[in-house]
Amino acid sequence: MVAFRYRSGRTGRRSPAALRTLSPLSPLSLLSLLLSSLLSALCLLALPAAAQDARPPAHPERDWLGSTLRAHEDPGPGTPPPPRTAASVEGVDVSSHNGNVPWAVLWNAGNRFAYVKATEGTSYTNPYFAQQYNGSYAAGMIRGAYHFALPDNSGGAAQAVYFATHGGGWSKDGRTLPGVLDIEYNPYGPTCYGMSASALVGWIRDFFSAYKARTGRDAVVYTSANWWKQCTGNYGGFASTHPLWVPRYGASAGELPAGWGYHTIWQYTDTGPTVGDHNRFNGTYSRLQALANG
């Protein structure tokens, strides 16, 4: 007879009558079980490949908000913006190329929000992210994270999930802004990533949908009007739900992509003090807090 162990730890024996009730698997059932196990194993093996970039970025440390603009367009005359009013808030954006950021210096200069690059594609994370993201928060700023898009390397949903799980998440603490999709000129090849306008719009939609499913928030989109017109056909369908962040280095935010009647954030220079990129939120501090709270 066969020995077994009760939950109490005592060993007992099954009777021959009990053993006769255990029927062996039929050949068909056994084959079905084996095929199911094989399929599960194949799916697990496929997951890492699907999560990786088809072509990992060669220089992600050189890719940040607006880093591709000057090679493709004139982002503006570089004249100083008008003086800040009570209905605007100053802020900065940073990435690994800034290294360890002196947040106290930026706070004392009047900056009250910051966006930090978290990820690129589905294989890169900013090695300075903790110092930059947590440091800005510790200094008193409202902060958020952004993702540098590589639409020709992996799907929009895959990149959104990677972003949301590597620093781009959101919490309703009043100090965390929704994540940003940075979509601009391709730093590694064709301007529009070798994709049609409809394919790019679909990729962006997939990113937005997956990000909202993960975080509950609609992502902000950072893009230039010129790139948007050229690569999406000036699609206007995202304007009602996704705040717009535009780069324009001059006295005004300039032309906006189709659909948006106003910008939420304006990147007005890439040569500002301390970190280069400086921005202006289009609203009062209480409106910035409202954006953070969702």
Number of H- or I-type helical stretches: 8
Summing up helix and strand content along with how strands pair, one would put the structural category as alpha/beta
* Most strands sheet: 8 strands, mixed, barrel
* Shape field: globular
Helix percentage range: 25-40%
Mean pLDDT: 87
Uncertain regions spanning at least 5 consecutive residues: 1-23, 29-50
Q: Which percent band covers the strand fraction? A: 15-25%
Radius of gyration: 26 Å
Query: Which strand order do you get reading across the main beta sheet?
Result: 3-4-6-7-8-9-10-11
SSE order, one letter for each helix or strand = EEHHEHEEHEHEHEHEEEH
| Beta strand count | 11
Distance between the termini: 66 Å
